[in-house]
From TrEMBL, chain B:
Ranges of Pro residues composition bias in the record: 317-327
Claim: Membrane is one of the keywords in the record: yes
Protein name: Fibronectin type-III domain-containing protein
Transmembrane segments: 216-242
Recorded name of the encoding gene: IL2RG
Lineage: superkingdom: Eukaryota
Cellular component GO terms held in the UniProt record: external side of plasma membrane
Source species of the chain: Catharus ustulatus (Russet-backed thrush)
């Protein structure tokens, strides 16, 4: 009887695990949706240019994410009525972290090219897409 | 062969641009020209950032002119800046035409879906499934286009997974389905859809060619054979009916002739109903009239103003009553008025 119960529990847990999608990918999907929202609301005119990493170094994903997160905090919404939604999206994205597999040397954030807010967000989108795909 | 001056070449190429497509992440082609391009010697250099600048190893040609470059999978890295430089050399002069920075993950064109399969579900529902040669299913979004044989236009719908359900189908119609794929926003910002897949058919007529012939066949059966068969059946039944008197008598009984009951009336009493009925003689006598009455002829009294002679009108007006015209009778009240005018 005991063995039966344990077996049933294990079977149940294994089926749950199989049907569940990867939580990592779900997180990346969420971040990509938030970046898309920010792109639609962000102020472009007279906005500060931000260091935008590109040609991401393998193994240093989290370091690159940190550069993007620094820039995210400087973004502003184009319309004041979008502020609550904008702030909420910024908060969610700021909490996002990735893993550095093996990071030897990364260029500092300031070494990258400065770009407009929308292009900066597109750069961030590229990074998350790379993480999602791999 | 048109050989332009060097000033025109950069304008031509800048307008045309370099178009690269990464097919199913297996190989890439970058095209910069066509037959209309000036026939000069083109060379392509490409580089990913921080790497040296190799030349194109395999050119694509159109009538001897290089119009594109073919890249193997191992020459490409996604999520890294990719640059292309075209050198156009004519008459000893070389012009460099750079391209924009490209991100290869945004240039992926997946292969068309394959193995389209239709399943009949309950409640008249159809389920379409397919497979994709592209390795990463999570990166794909799909579009399904379908039409029935009675529709005039295609219906196109987006699908996120790799299953499409058509809620209600008409079993009288036949349907055709196509599917195509695209890299979704989670793996790239692409614009290219794949080619449409090979079609899959479902319905009462699996081939469109057989439709008209089959319809004619069934039409012929319904409108010609069925009436003939039913007429023949009717004829057989009528013949049987006529031949089988027992059945005939039940269905069409003889109209009874009551004249036998009235033999006495017609033969014995010679049609005298009263005699046959037994009416008493004095009752019969009482119905006979025992007085005579003269027939009274009535004519219209002419007006006083009339100049016509009375006798003319009297001569011309024979009474319509049967019997001889009565002679003017002094006892008749009408005679007085007749004679007075």
């Amino acid at each position: 009887m005991k063995r039966m119960i344990i077996f049933c529990m294990l079977f149940f847990c294994s089926t749950m695990v199989l049907t569940e999608t990867s939580p990592r990918r779900a997180k990346y999907r969420q971040i990509l949706r938030k970046i898309e929202e920010l792109e639609s609301m962000v102020k472009e005119k007279d906005a500060e240019l931000l260091y935008t990493p590109e040609n991401f170094v393998d193994g240093c994903e989290n370091t690159t994410v940190t550069c993007f997160k620094k820039g995210i905090l400087k973004l502003q919404p184009a319309r004041s009525q979008d502020t609550p939604k904008f702030t909420k999206a910024i908060r969610i994205v700021s909490r996002f972290t990735a893993k550095d597999k093996q990071c030897n040397a990364t260029p500092p954030c300031e070494s990258y090219e400065k770009k407009t807010p929308k292009n900066f967000l597109k750069g961030f989108e590229n990074l998350i897409q790379m993480l999602f795909k791999n | 062969v048109y050989v332009p001056t060097s000033g025109l070449i950069p304008q031509c190429l800048l307008l045309a641009g370099v178009e690269c497509e990464l097919y199913n992440e297996e190989y890439m082609t970058c095209m910069w020209g066509s037959r209309e391009m000036p026939t000069v010697n083109y060379s392509l250099f490409y580089w990913l950032l921080l790497l040296p600048k190799p030349r194109c190893k395999r050119y694509l040609q159109d009538q001897g002119v290089r119009v594109g470059c073919y890249f193997e999978q191992n020459e490409l890295i996604q999520f890294q800046s990719f640059h292309v430089l075209i050198n156009a050399s004519v008459g000893g002069k070389t012009l460099e035409i750079p391209s924009k920075r490209m991100l290869l993950q945004d240039l992926v064109k997946p292969a068309a879906p394959v193995n389209l399969t239709i399943r009949n579900m309950s409640n008249n529902q159809l389920q379409l499934t397919w497979a994709s040669p592209y390795p990463n299913d999570q990166c794909l979004e799909h579009a399904v286009k379908y039409k029935s044989n009675k529709d005039t236009s295609w219906t196109e719908l987006s699908v996120n997974g790799d299953v499409f359900s058509l809620p209600s189908v008409d079993y009288e119609k036949s349907y055709t389905f196509y599917v195509r794929s695209k890299i979704n926003k989670f793996c790239g910002s692409t614009l290219f859809w794949s080619e449409w897949s090979l079609p899959v058919f479902w319905g009462s007529n699996s081939t469109s060619k057989g439709t008209v012939e089959e319809q004619l066949y069934w039409f012929g059966i319904r409108t010609v054979l069925v009436p003939i068969a039913s007429c023949l059946l009717l004829l057989v039944l009528v013949i049987l009916l006529v031949r089988m008197e027992r059945v005939w008598v039940i269905l069409m009984p003889r109209i009874p002739n009551p004249s036998k009951n009235f033999d006495e009336l017609f033969i014995t009493h010679n049609g005298n109903f009263q005699e046959w009925a037994g009416v008493p003689k004095d009752v019969v006598e009482s119905f006979k009239p025992n007085y005579s009455e003269n027939i009274c002829y009535v004519t219209e009294l002419p007006p006083k103003d009339s100049h016509e002679p009375l006798w003319d009108s009297s001569n011309h007006a024979p009474p319509p009553m049967p019997g001889p015209p009565a002679a003017p009778n002094e006892h008749s009240p009408y005679w007085n008025s007749y004679g007075r005018v």
